[in-house]
Amino acid sequence: MFRRIASTVPAQASRAMAAAVRPSIAPSFRAAAPAISAERYVHPSLTVVSESMVNDPPSTHWQPCIQSLSNTQLTCAVLLDHYSKPRNVGSMQKGDTDVGTGLVGAPACGDVMKLQIRVDPNDNTISEVKFKTFGCGSAIASSSYLTELVKGMTLEQAGRIKNTEIAKELCLPPVKLHCSMLAEDAIKSAISNYYTKNPNARKTDLGGTSAPLPKVEVETVSASA
């Protein structure tokens, strides 16, 4: 009997000691996100900031990035809007004489953009724009924004669009500037293709932009296409 008691007491004592020295683990918690100042919430094109703008910013203001890695990473609401709801997606008959097609790509990232414009020969203005883009969200947003920007412009005005204007409006980060360059190349390529089909049309100066005029290959399309 004494042997049995002696054998059980150390076990009970060890369990009591383990319970006594077992550290307590505090419940995990996440620190609250730091407040974002009004200056960082505002789109660069705006100069007047009110409290209502910060609390309920309109679509042209800065908003926190949906997939941000930190609370300090912000993206423009215009970019998110054009990415989630792209405008003027589609294509036209490339064989039509009043349609100019631009097909450009960025080998570095694999983005491919096709932009088509329909030109009114009476006043040389762009009456319709369509695009199809295979690429990242910034490339899609750049394409969508460009279609709204050039619609109604003359070929002269559209040919002078700079990629820096697109990047500024969409708040593109430096690593995504090539997407705005791709959009600029696309509109210039479409204009050049239109002039290839219409050699007697009034020429447009495509200078003044940051990207060189891309080479355009015109496909021969049968009348049945």
Report on this structure:
One of its GO terms (cellular component) is mitochondrial matrix. With 225 residues, the chain is α+β, with helices and mostly antiparallel strands. The chain has 8 helices and 5 strands; from the N terminus they run αααββαβββαααα. Among the domains are: 38-84, no CATH class; 99-197, Sufe protein. Chain: A. It has helices spanning 2-21, 38-41, 51-55, 77-84, 137-150, 155-158, 163-170, 177-197; strands at residues 62-64, 74-76, 99-106, 111-120, 125-134. It has a 3-stranded antiparallel sheet. A two-stranded antiparallel sheet has the order 1-2. A hairpin with a 4-residue loop joins strand 4 (111-120) and strand 5.
Task: Give me a quick take on this structure.
This protein is α+β, with helices and mostly antiparallel strands and 225 residues long. It contains eight helices and five strands.
What is the fold's blueprint, element by element?
Blueprint: H1 2-21, H2 38-41, H3 51-55, E1 62-64, E2 74-76, H4 77-84, E3 99-106, E4 111-120, E5 125-134, H5 137-150, H6 155-158, H7 163-170, H8 177-197
Antiparallel strand pairs: 1-2, 3-4, 4-5
Helix pairs in contact: 4-5, 5-8, 7-8
CATH-level-2 architecture of the domain at 99-197? Alpha-Beta Complex
The structural class is alpha+beta
Under the CATH scheme, which class of the domain at 99-197? Alpha Beta
Question: From the alpha-carbon coordinates, what is the Rg to the nearest angstrom?
Answer: 30 Å
Please count the beta strands (DSSP E, at least 2 residues each).
5
Compute the separation of the termini in Å.
103 Å
Low-confidence stretches: 1-9, 23-74, 208-214
Q: Work out the helix count.
A: 8
Strand order of the largest sheet: 3-4-5
* CATH-derived topology of the domain at 99-197: Sufe protein. Chain: A
GO molecular function: 2 iron, 2 sulfur cluster binding; iron ion binding
Pathway: Cofactor biosynthesis; iron-sulfur cluster biosynthesis
Subcellular location: Mitochondrion matrix
Family: Belongs to the NifU family.
